[in-house]
Amino acid sequence: MKKMICLLLALTLCxxxxxxxxxxxxxxxxxxxxxxxVEQDYSxxxxxxxxxxxxxVAALEQLNYNGRxxxxxxxxxxxxxxxxxKSADALERIGMPEPKTFIIGVDINSFPLAYVSxxxxxxxxxELASSVCELLGWELxxxxxxxEDVAVELASGNIDCAWGxxxxxxxxxxxxxxxxxxxxxxxxxxxxxxxxxxxxxTLKLNNKNMAMPTTPEATAALETNPxxxxxxxxxxxxxxxxxxxxxYLYSGKCDAILTDxxxxxxxxxx
Length: 270
Prior knowledge:
Blueprint: H1 2-22, E1 31-46, H2 52-66, H3 68-77, H4 90-94, E2 101-106, E3 115-117, E4 120-122, H5 124-136, E5 139-144, H6 150-156, E6 161-162, H7 170-174, E7 179-194, E8 210-213, H8 216-223, H9 226-231, E9 235-238, H10 241-251, E10 256-260, H11 261-268
Parallel strand pairs: 2-5, 2-6, 8-9, 8-10
Antiparallel strand pairs: 1-6, 1-7, 3-4, 7-10
Helix pairs in contact: 2-5, 3-5
């Protein structure tokens, strides 16, 4: 009997140690990066000399100090991956603005920062912009834009701020077509696979099926690495973007996906 008890205790200890090393079955359910295709940073863009810039920045830094930004980053990414500044009295120093409707331009193909679900705008940036407007006493309005049209949308007055998974054009910034706040989140466009897939480098992608979004940005990212593109087998392009890509991956309809590292944070923490 004593030998049996000792054996059970030893097995329990062994299982506990293995769980500690492997995540206790969690590995295999996560998704990992196989290769990074593009590195980019997300920022906010405002018209040059627009006073709204100062109010929004002050509100963001005060919300970050008060813990609201961390609350949202934990909700959407599982950890704080943002780089906003912090200030306890940023708004007190500049004063409160007049009430207004604040229009943001978002890229709805930037899950989980900005996307549409059941006809509603949703995502980390949407919630954060809502918190900023609540603090400033503004009404939030959302306008869908393409990333390459930031300068035009701002100059025309269609939007007050490009905010929602937007990687700004460095040439436009250099020409001062608008002013940026950030970057506040780093994002990589990657090819990824399940933890337990046996895929860990580009050589393992030979003849593997991949799902990817239909967006021009996704296509351009794949074109940056022709060798990897040639290794792949069937490539399925999905209108639903990262959400549909992950559904394909989890259901076994593909071996790998082209997606964003910010989306990996979301799916690995939910």
